[in-house]
Every structure is written in C-alpha cells, then in structure tokens.
Amino acid sequence: MNVALSDDQGLEGGALLAIVGGEVVRCDRAEGTATLHASTLLHAVTRVQGSAARYSLILFYRQICPAAAHRLVECSVATMDLLYPPEEGSYSCDACGDSRLHRVRRSEPGGASSRCEHRRELEEQGCRSMWHCAAGCEYDLCGVCHDVGLADGVEYVSVR
Q: Which among 74, 68, 96 has a CA at the least distance from the CA of 154?
C-alpha cells in the first residue's frame, strides 16, 4: 500500500506510473490517498524536477493464508522456480522465514542450465517441496513447517 503524504498535483515529475493491461497508467493521487496493489505490479515514480519533494508512506504486507482458509498446493523446486523467476526475487517460508535452501542463486545468470544445476544441488541437499497458495497470494510454507502442522486446517493438494 502506498499512501501519498504530499499532493502529486503541485509537482513537476513525481508521478506514480504502473503497467496495467500492457499500458502505462498514471496514478494521480491527492495527499492522504492510498493506492493498494500487488507486490508483483510493475510500477515506478518519475523523477521530481527542481527542489520539490514527494513524500509517501509505503507499507508491505502479506495475507496469511491459513487465517483465510486458502488452499495450499505442494510445488516442486522446479515449479517454485517458475512461480518466482530470478529477476523477481527469492521466496521463503512464511512460517519460519527460511529461504536458505529454497532460494534461486541470484549471482548466477538466469539461464536454464544454471537453474537446472541449482535445482539438482537443492535436491542433493535434501531440499523438499514448498507449499504455495493456490489462490496466488504468495503465501509459501516449507516442507518442514508443513510436516509439523504450522498450517493446520488448510486444504493441501500435491501437484508436481
């Protein structure tokens, strides 16, 4: 969520832009206006010209699926790599925060061969599947947290 703490109208530049439906959309906001969007939305702010300043309060949060009774799907390492491409960052367990064994190496080129090598390495280290929200809200649970029941009451489906 992005809350405008200053008015966009009085600025030269400082516009919030987003890619929506393949087009660039300008989001004009008055002071106190809140803009809520998914973390995956491609967006940016244009450069402010002169000595003016633009102020925003930006809050990041995730929906916790067990509280919302979302269905979790078991995903292999290969599937998680597809859900979270290297250029979009890593993923981690929302219960324990562990991403050590589940993260795609960002220092390597994103080519298929390095990803296949990484996948093989994870499997050799005993990395198991992750449980991912079927509704797409980016809630992930590692196999260990799943096994100890940190998301009891959630429907699980195994997909490879």
A: 68
What number of other Cβ atoms are within 10 A of residue 4's Cβ? Answer: 21
Extract the tokens encoding 117: 């090598």
Q: Which residues contact 21 (CB under 8 A, 6 or more apart)?
A: none
What is the spatial distance between Cα 16 and Cα 53, in angstroms, rounded to a whole number? 14
Structure confidence by residue, pLDDT tens digits, 38-85: 777 788 888 888 888 888 888 876 555 454 566 778 887 777 777 666
Q: How far apart are CA 144 and CA 155, in angstroms?
A: 17
| Annotated domain spans of the chain | 2-58, 65-158
CA distances 59 to 53, 138, 158, Å, are 19, 16, 33
Size of the chain, expressed as the number of residues it contains: 160
In the predicted structure, residue 34 carries a pLDDT above the cut 60:
yes
